[in-house]
Amino acid sequence: MTFSLPHALAVWRRNAAMYGRTWMYNLLPNFFEPVLYLVAIGLGVGAYVSEMAGMSYAEFLAPGLVCVAAMNGASFEVTYNIYVRLTFDKAYDAMLTTPIGPDEVLAGEVLWAMTRASIYGGCFFLVLVLWGLAPMPSAILALPSILLSGLLFAALGIAFTLRVPSIDLFSFYFTLFLTPLFLFSDVFFPLEERLAGAWLWVAELLPLLHPVRIARCAFRGEFRAIILWDVVYLLGLSTALLWWSRSAVRERLMS
Fold it and tell me: What pLDDT, on the 0 to 100 scale, is given for residue 1?
């Protein structure tokens, strides 16, 4: 079956139309989570921290929380929402009665997850600009990290969702996977100053670390060669997960 971009965009438009009906209820909780962390930790705890990595604590937190917002936007979309459409609503069964195929379903869902990641990450980025925590114009270079975060966590979430047998197991995904990433991916403290030796190599395996490092370098207006590794990691892992998910989605939808 030949892949059709218009058919994939039809899946994207369907999700966008559904989101448009309840966007406020979906946007506010996930959007305000990093805002609350910024206020409570950046401004609250930050009052007791003179500086972090040569800047105020709020300035240190800001780029990492942009990527966290994007991670949340993509993750919630490709876990609970896809599982409901797949298992309870049977929305994909209806799609397959049209010329849309499994590959277009997968591509459309990834594109929509990246869109939601861009909405959450982009809105939070605007908050940082208004608060003076996003140094312009260099901070604009952090915007690609939002898309890369959306792509990676869309791929991770879909790969998990297609194999999970029960909706109850998503609590493990968020609590035992996303939460540790949130806490130990250079968001709250510089890993290079707290970890050494083999632990730094272990940290390089953490998916959230890589977009956070790209965003932080952009906010600082600096280029580090390791950013090239970050881009390769994000694109390589995303591609591998989506290729694996391609066979999984065909198995689930065509069986």
Answer: 60
Structure tokens given for 102: 């499994």
pTM of the full structure: 0.93
Maximum Cα–Cα distance across the chain? 61
Sign for the pseudo-dihedral over CA of 202, 207, 208, 212: positive
Cβ-Cβ contacts under 8 Å for 80 (sequence gap 6 or more): 167, 170
Q: At 188, phi and psi to the nearest 5?
A: -100, -20
pLDDT on residue 30: 63
Q: State what percent of residues in the chain have pLDDT above 90.
A: 71
Q: DSSP letter string over 218-232? A: HHHT---THHHHHHH
Which segments of the chain have a pLDDT < 70?
Answer: 1, 23-31
Amino acid in the structure at residue 177: F
d(CA 168, CA 165): 9
Of residues 111, 30, 29, 28, the one with CA closest to residue 68:
30
Report the 3 state secondary structure along 85-141: HHHCCCHHHHHCCCCCCHHHHHHHHHHHHHHHHHHHHHHHHHHHHHCCCCCCCHHHH
**Terminal Cα distance for the chain, rounded:** 16
189 dihedral zone (left: phi>0; alpha: psi -120 to 50; beta)? beta
